[in-house]
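Problem 3 from the worked examples.
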Amino acid sequence: MDRLTTLRRSLEELFPERHLYVRSGGAMKAFVLTSRKQMFMAAGVAGCALWMGVSTAAMLVDLMSASASDREFATLKAQSERYVADRQARLDSAMARLNAASGSNADAATAIEKRHAALAMLLTDMKGSPGAAEALTPAIDRALAKPDAAPARRIEMVRVGQEQLLEAADSFSKGRADRLRLAFRMAGLSPSTYADRGGALGGPLIESKDPRALAAVLDVDEDFAVRIQRVARDLSEAQSLSEAANELPFGRPTTNATQTSGYGVRLDPFTRRPAYHSGLDFSGAHATPIYSTGPGTVAYTGVRSGYGNVVEIDHGRGLKTRYAHLSSFAVRPGQRVSVGQRIAGMGSTGRSTGTHLHYEVWVNGRAQNPGRFLKAGQYVLQGD
């Protein structure tokens, strides 16, 4: 009871009786707020505050719970979308492989046909080249598919055969170009002077400095076009050098004679002292046939001091040949002669100790060693 009395006194002290005066319209009204009324009002305010606090807390809990649920739902949704996307990607990949497998044979056949067209152009240019048939026939036979093989196997065999055929063509064209270049160097001539680097392929001139442009023209892949370009370049150079070699004096001036003197310093047969010999001597019977060593035009027939009867042939490009000590002439000045054509008979006219042929080769007004031209000619013939 004492505690209740003390509590009551404390509340009365906390909520003492208060008088509230309100003035309105010139009238004064008085309101008495007893301790009991104040306690009821305080209890109501506290109850409202408590309710608002509980409601706010409940709302916050609901919001936090809803946010966690949303995040979990979003996570599950993302996982589901990734799963669906992965399955779709796998399906697309499988369909692509299926389409590739179904169309691979057709694509391979188309690519092989395009390569065949490019090879046909190349082999057409190689047709007629000495040794080309022997070098390429085995590769051509290997490129033909076996009729009893499976279709996929036949396509693969043809593709591999094409690669081997191109390798054989590359090896042949490069080997022939190298051989001809060496022959020109053996003769003391510069191959670049006689090589035409235009590079014609399949008739029309194709400027193939850019492999991509050549690949577009031939309608093949770029790697194959680069290899075609290399073969065509070597083949073009070999053909140019071969054509030039056919115009040069690479033949033998006589067949039924033995070489008796070489080019350079030797003992002069008359003075028995060292003297410069500007050609080769071939000994044989009287009137042994003398042949033109290359195509050209007869520039002179007649007598020259020390040489006796002479035939001189102009082969163009600054090259001339001289045949001396002849017994007779078979050609006249201005006449066009071919390689191996009889132009005179062997004799002993001029400064000579016996029947023989003195043979000289001149390049741009200077005497050269004819033996180098003879060796170059033999080398070219061996390559053919």
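Problem 4, a separate protein:
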Amino acid sequence: MVFKFIFGGLYVKKNYFITLLIFLLLIFLTSTIILHPEVAFKGSIRGLNMWWGIVFPSLLPFFILSELLICFGIVQFIGVFLEPVMRPLFRVPGVGAFVWAMGMASGFPSGAKLSAKLYKDGELTKLEAERLNSFTNSSNPLFIFVAISVGFFHNPKVGLVLALSHYLSNAIVGLIMRFYGSNQPNYSRKERIHSNRFKYAFKVMHEKRLSERRPIGKILGDAIASSVQTLLMIGGFIIVFSVLNMLLIEIGFISNVGKIIAFCFSNLKVNHNLSTPFLSGLFEITLGSKLVSELGNSTLLQQVALTSFILGFGGFSIQAQVASIISEVKLSMKPYLIGRLLQSGIAPILAIIFWKPLYLNQLTSNVTNNTLPVIKIFTEKQLNLESLISTGSFITLISLYIYVIILIYKLYIKKLSS
């Protein structure tokens, strides 16, 4: 009873401390915004532009398409074929290959959304969904090649180093995280040996399609509504963390803490001026990558390695987005955070390894045909962040217009049925 009283009292004090800490933090942020309204406004505009012009139009088609592919059983069809590959390597079902591919193609936080969706539909166990979520959230190639390489560094050739180190480190994290929860039951269903795998895959897809009772119009409308709602939530996180980052820079928090990081960087023979972009990148990858690219007194290799770290870590903004998505189905954040720590350490090392063969050798080579087609296209068209935002804004506006129409129609139908 005595021990219970003592530890119970400590638990109550801990709860009081957390409540006090939250209170002080919110008061501090509110007062900071009041004292620096122009900085908060600038941060809001910056976050809104990034969401409006890049994040929304780039993620929306993939979100809608993934919902449709799951509803009509095509994901299950793919899963039957890739089961023999994904099980031995990553200890997840074959449908994990779909999540991984969509996560790479569409970018953060698609992997979390699809992992949560498949877990909710019973295609994954809780352990498999957490394991899959740890390595399927990555930056999309468009952001790496266009926004960072061309828009920030004005050097398309660094895109290949960043992309290869980013995606390969993701795969290595997946191989490491296969051991996560190794002492717990793993399989959602046992792999069977089929004489005709294509026939069995088609049967699984057909059964999934028949189990879907909603008409096609209803499925499409629900897919659009669900995708837009998720993206609105993502937009809120982007704006909040953009404002927070700008305020921390304004009040000197980033620069003061950066002095400690700068001391550590100096001991590691790294340019101490990279400390401020490093801290900004911990909060938000776009601003961090931009600040890294603007440092003229640092070697390009150090800038690329730090950018690779920032992409691997993901930033607190994206981590908060992932936490919000997976909390709806009660998945743990622990494996995802472990994955981010692993990737942020592996990716810079790979960038340094790939630097000579993929960048320096390309510079010394006189053969222009060796340039990757994707990089040639970006260079010829002179794509940049501003042109991407202007095009994406139009797509976002049309998509939101369609979403409002669907929402009004759903409310009208609900009113008639009540």
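Solution to problem 4. The CA atoms of residues 111 and 395 lie 23 Å apart. The chain has 18 helices and no strands.
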